Amino acid sequence: MYSHMMVGSNDMDRSKKFYDNLFKSVGGREAMVDPKGRLVYVHNDGIFMVTPPIDGAEATCGNGMTIGFAMESPDQADAWHKAGLEAGGTAIEDPPGVRENPGMNLYLAYLRDPDGNKLCALHRMD
C-alpha cells in the first residue's frame, strides 16, 4: 500500500547524522542525497526520505503522526533506540519494552527525531 515516507527538516546536516545512525544501527546504509538535497534511505524494500520543505516554510512535525520501522528483534529495536538517543533524538512515551495487546504482543521503542517527528521501532512478538 505504501510507496515511501517523507519528513521535513530544518537542519539537513543534523537530520543526516540522526537518521544515518538510526539506519546503520539496524544494518542499513547512510543516506543517498538526491539532486534536490533530500536524504534518501532504502532499506528492507522501504524508502524513507528527509527534505527541507519545498514551500520554503519551516518544517513542523505532525501532531498524532507516528512513523513505524519494522524490527527483527527486541535487541534490534533497543540498538535503534540507543543509536537515535546518541545522535540527538529524544526518548518519549514508555521505555522500550513489550506492550500487551489483545491477540498480539509488541515490542516498541519510541523516539522523537531532532525536528520533533515521532518514530517507533516495532517488533511483533511470537
Description:
There is one protein chain. β8 and β9 form a beta hairpin. About 20% of the residues lie in helices and about 35% in strands. It is α+β, with helices and mostly antiparallel strands. The protein has a single domain, classed as 2,3-Dihydroxybiphenyl 1,2-Dioxygenase, domain 1, CATH 3.10.180. The relative contact order is 0.22. α1 (about 10-25) packs antiparallel against α2. The strands form 2 sheets. Strands 5, 6, 7, 8 and 9 form a 5-stranded mixed β-sheet that branches.
Topology:
Blueprint: E1 5-8, H1 12-25, E2 32-33, E3 39-43, E4 46-51, E5 67-70, H2 74-86, E6 90-91, E7 97-101, E8 104-112, E9 118-124
Parallel strand pairs: 1-4, 5-9
Antiparallel strand pairs: 2-3, 3-4, 6-8, 7-8, 8-9
Overall number of structural domains: 1
Briefly note the CATH topology name. 2,3-Dihydroxybiphenyl 1,2-Dioxygenase, domain 1
Q: What value does the Rg take, in angstroms?
A: 14 Å
CATH H-tier superfamily = 2,3-Dihydroxybiphenyl 1,2-Dioxygenase, domain 1
Low-confidence stretches: none
How helical, in percent, are the residues?
A: 10-25%
Overall 3D geometry? globular
CATH architecture tag: Roll
> Main beta sheet, described?
5 strands, mixed
Instruction: Please report the distance between the alpha carbons of the first and last residues.
Output: 24 Å
What is the highest CATH level, the class? Alpha Beta
- SSE arrangement, N to C: EHEEEEHEEEE
Number of helices: 2
Oligomer: single chain
Could you give the count of β-strands?
9
